[in-house]
Amino acid sequence: MSTPAHRPSSRPSRRQREHRAYRLTLATGAAGLAAVVVLILSIVGVTSFGLFVLLAVLTAALAFALKATLGR
Question: How many DSSP H helices and E strands does the chain contain?
Answer without folding.
Answer: 2, 0
